[in-house]
Amino acid sequence: MRVERLEIRDFRVLTEPVCLGPFDARLTVIAGDNEDGKSTVLDALRTVLFEKHRITGAGAERMRPWDRDVAPEIVLEFTQGAARWRIEKRFCRRPMARLRCLDDARSWDDDAAEDMLEALLGFSRPARGASDRSHQGVWGLLWVEQGATHEPLRPAAGARATIGAALEQEVGAVLGGTLGRRLADRIAARHRTFWTDTGRPGGEYGRLLREAEALRGEIDTAATRLARWDEELEQLERLDARLRGLEAEQVIDRLRAAEQAAREAVEGLAELERALEAARAAARVAVLERDRALDGWSSRRALIERRAEALGELEQTLARRDAAAQALGECEREAEQRRIERDQASEAFRGARDRQRRLDQGLEQGRLRDEAEALALRIERAREDILALRRTRAALAADPATPERIEALERALRKRDALQARLAAGATRIRFHGDRVPSVSGRALADGASWLVTGAARFELPGLGIDVQVPEAELERVEIEKEDAERVLAAALTELGVEDRAAADRAEARRAKLARSLVEIEARAEALVPEGLEAVEERLEAVRARLTGFEEAARLETDEGADVPGAEARLARADAAWTVARERLASARARAEADRDATVRQEAALARLEGQLARERESLSDAELQERVTRSDAAAAVALRQEEAAAQALRDADAELLRLRLEDAGRAHAEARGEQARLRMEVERLRAALRASGRDGLAEAHADQLRAQLALERRLAVTARRAAAARLAHEALQAAAGAARERYLAPLFARLQPYLDRLLPGARLHFGDDMEVTGLERGGVAEPFEALSMGTREQLAVLVRLAFAELLSEQGEDAPVVLDDALVYADDRRFGTMQDVLRLASRKHQIIVLTCHERLWRGIGGPVLRVESAPTGAA
Amino acid sequence: MSSHAVRGAGLRILHTADWQIGKGFAFVDGDTGALLRERRIDMLADLAALAAAHEVDLVLVAGDVFDAPTLSDRTLLRTCEQLAAFTVPVVLLPGNHDAARSESIWTRLDALAALPPCCIPALEATPLDLLDGRVTVLPAPLRRRREPDDLTAWFDQAPREGNGFRIGLAHGTVRNRLPVEAEAHNPIADDRADRAKLDYLALGDWHGTLQIAPRTWYAGTPETDGFRANASGQVLLVELDAPGAEPRVRALPTTRFRFRTLELELDGALSIESLADRLEALPEPGDTLLRLVLGGQLDLAGHAALEGLLARWDARLRLLEVDAGALRTLADAAELDGFAGDGFVADAARRLLAETDSADASRAAAARDALQLLYTEHQALLGDDA
Fold this sequence. Notes:
The structure holds two protein chains of two kinds.
Chain A: E1 2-9, E2 18-20, E3 27-31, H1 38-50, H2 58-61, E4 73-80, E5 83-90, E6 96-101, E7 107-109, H3 110-121, H4 137-142, E8 143-144, H5 157-171, H6 177-194, H7 203-248, H8 251-398, H9 403-426, E9 428-431, E10 439-440, E11 443-444, E12 450-453, E13 457-461, E14 464-468, H10 473-496, H11 501-528, H12 533-553, H13 564-619, H14 622-652, H15 655-695, H16 698-744, H17 746-759, E15 764-767, E16 773-778, E17 781-784, H18 790-810, E18 817-820, H19 828-841, E19 847-851, H20 854-857, E20 864-866
Parallel strand pairs in A: 3-19, 3-20, 8-18, 18-19
Antiparallel strand pairs in A: 1-2, 1-4, 4-5, 5-6, 6-7, 9-12, 10-11, 10-13, 13-14, 15-16, 16-17
Helix pairs in contact in A: 6-16, 7-15, 7-16, 8-11, 8-12, 8-13, 8-14, 8-15, 9-10, 17-18, 18-19
Chain B: H1 3-6, E1 11-16, H2 30-53, E2 58-61, H3 73-83, E3 90-92, H4 105-112, E4 119-121, E5 128-130, E6 135-140, E7 165-171, E8 173-174, E9 187-188, H5 192-195, E10 200-204, E11 210-213, E12 216-218, E13 234-240, E14 248-253, E15 258-267, H6 269-280, E16 288-298, H7 300-316, E17 319-329, H8 333-340, H9 344-355, H10 361-385
Parallel strand pairs in B: 1-2, 2-3, 3-4, 6-7, 7-10, 8-9, 10-12, 15-16, 16-17
Antiparallel strand pairs in B: 1-13, 5-6, 11-12, 13-14
Helix pairs in contact in B: 2-3, 6-7, 7-10, 8-9, 9-10
């Protein structure tokens, strides 16, 4: 079909009649600004072809302009095959349809027209309601509304059928028809029952695998229990054999007998031990007896020796006492001699000391005399200064030029001078010239004299009197003040006793000189007697008094020498010698005393010892004592020999070995009994455990598990086989379908690829089963269609539509491609490329471009139609 | 029946072995395995009836009465209950499965005190004088699972008292006389009967009935327990007219369940029909455990038909094990076209068919299955459409 001409009236926004055409057989641009109704043109095209004229409800209402109760009308002239046709429809009110063949004037009205149109163009309308793209055959695919060009391109069933028919016409029935597709779907469904989307075992297959795994674990556990049962049985048999061995060989009995024999041997030892104990006790007694006899004899000998020693000591003491008495006499004599020497030295020392004292006093007297002279001189000068001070102070006190008065004079002068200045500044000065002498207020003035008028005054010239009235009272007051000041000044001068200022200054200088002199005298006096005159005078008195004392005492022997240290040293030496002599004397006396005491003591001790010896001998003589010692010594020797003999007998019996034997025999017996008990216990325990687990039917349970495993494994094997078959069949079908699709779509690719190479050199598009574009492959990388940019998606969708249209066109199924505001997402380069592609494609079939960018499309080559009201009425 | 001829002077023995009560049948999945295990207890009633019917004097069980030492008390008690049906002495010999160890089935039975009076466990290697001294049984009980020595050696020296029958009872492997797969443990001299001057040596361990010497027999297990073809599933009726006389031995069938192995080469629809006939010819399919080993080649339709057939027989037989590893798929282009046309399905089918010849056996098998799946699903689709 090719669009030739279109008229629209009262359709949606197009309230005024619009007439478009003639359309170019190749490429026509329909331009219009926004809201001019450009997209409405495409809607009108769809409506006149695919909507029944009798349509009602929302489908009809949407055709009417807003708020207008009119009947939309559309007329389309088109070429289909070799014939030209005109379809004319009115909707909503008095709906009508008329199809006419413009070549042979055949005509169909209303429903007949609709049926004919369907048959002519090969589409099918819905039984009721508005038509949608799925009902519009290949036109639904090739006519794209504004804003929809970038959407995934999924041909509806009708479009697929049309294109599929065109494709199959070229390549034959490679897809194997719907049965093949259904078979593939069934196999895919079968595949899904065994495998997950990620290719892992799923569903029943996955469950069986998991169950088998779990069962394997259980079986391992059971097998372990069985193995343990066997091991325990082996152990039971080993232990049982050992136990029976113990019993069979009567091991316990033999060990018991051995222990008894050892015990009896050990009991034989006790007798020997008792004999040894008795011998040991007897020996102890004999030895004690002997020791006592020895002790008695040694005590006696000690006593005799002590008496002899005491006698010797007494004799020595007596000799020593005589020598000491002689020495004492010598000491007494020496001590007396030393005392006398010491007294002499003491006397000499006292004399030397007196001479020294007198020498010291002479020296002090000289010093005091000098001091008295110096003090008298200072007192005299100080008294002179005091007189001068008194005179100066009196002069100062008499001086009239006191600072107060000088200050008052200064003030009076300053005040008078100030007032004088004010008068000079404020008064009128009159100077007189001439030869006549004026008088002022009675005072005559000389020629050239001037007069300062400070108050009312009377000037008189000879023959002329002039009264000057000064209204200014201020000057007069100043004048008065000045006069007062003069008086004060005069009084001040008078007080000072001077006549003028110069005299006053002289008086002030004089007074200052007096004051300075006073200060100097005061300083000098201060320096002479800083402690005060009276203090100095007192000091002088004291010095003189001390001198008076010396006058009498210290007049003699002033020239004598005095060696006080030498005398002192000699005295010390004499003193020390005397002390030594006294100590010696005391020591000699003490020794004499001690010797005396010792003699007494030793005599007493000797007497005591002799008494004791006599008493003891009376009780037991020395000979008797010696006899006793000899006897007890022999008895002890015998007892010790007997003890040694008993000990040897015990040693010969080897008690340690016998006891060790008994110990070992006891231990062996106990151990054997312990082992027997342990073995019995362990055998019983194992037997009970084995019996208990045997009763549980381990073998049968294990067999049950193995059988269950077998069943499961068989099911699993069958399932795995089915799963593998399903996967293999599915994969084989997928691969074959992919290859077939490639072949099937080859005619489409033959049309598409030249365009695609212009836009994206080397790229290739992927299609799905329903001829939808699924992705783009470039540089060996496949990208899903949805992941591409909006611009690229739009451009690819347009290219595919052009290829579809071209394919159909070449099969004689001519269908125009209508693009509403397409390529809005393209950059300048792509836009240019796409325009070239459209230019090429329009050589094969009609293309209609609806755009609001007239300027961009003006150079494309086809006519540009504007959506404007037609000058004449439509239809 | 000739039994009356030997009554009095003669001796009639029911020789059996390898009951292996409690056997797990781990290789038979599901309920069938449990049923087989149950059957080994239930068969005792049949044996008791058989003993009664043949008026035997004595029952000898030559070892492996029980399958394992760790059977449940319940199993032991149920066994004892069944054994009570015997009216003549039943001598029970421990074998390698139920060796008389320190703790064993026998100690447990003793503790349970549940064995009926007719049962005589032969736990010691000492002569047993039975039937009022008419017969002396020389047992060789295993006290361990594996004995390196011939435990029957003592038979030679066992004193002969009186003129009674002298019967040996043992469990093990007669040297040089069994198939190679028999275990080499617990050896028994093949001339033991002669050397020990036995009237009969009753043996157990080999599960098929087998004569070793005129007086030496393996009875085999009375209930077949595997696919091994070894004449199992019977007991021996041994008749001795007098001490020293040659025994008369007869095998009496006792098994309920039959283990069958069927090996077939398939080729085309006719061969499947032939297989169906073979299956139909099986007696008592409900008591038959069948191992089917298939080879040859089938096309896709043949495979589908085989699958249907086997599914039906899987339900009818007690057990059906199929080993079709050697069965190839033969599908030519025509058959593929028949269900896949020219489309991509045909391509996939051809690709899978090529894979069925892969050197990798598992890959080839998977390809066969996948191809079959395509075929089956396609047939189902056609069925839906129809």
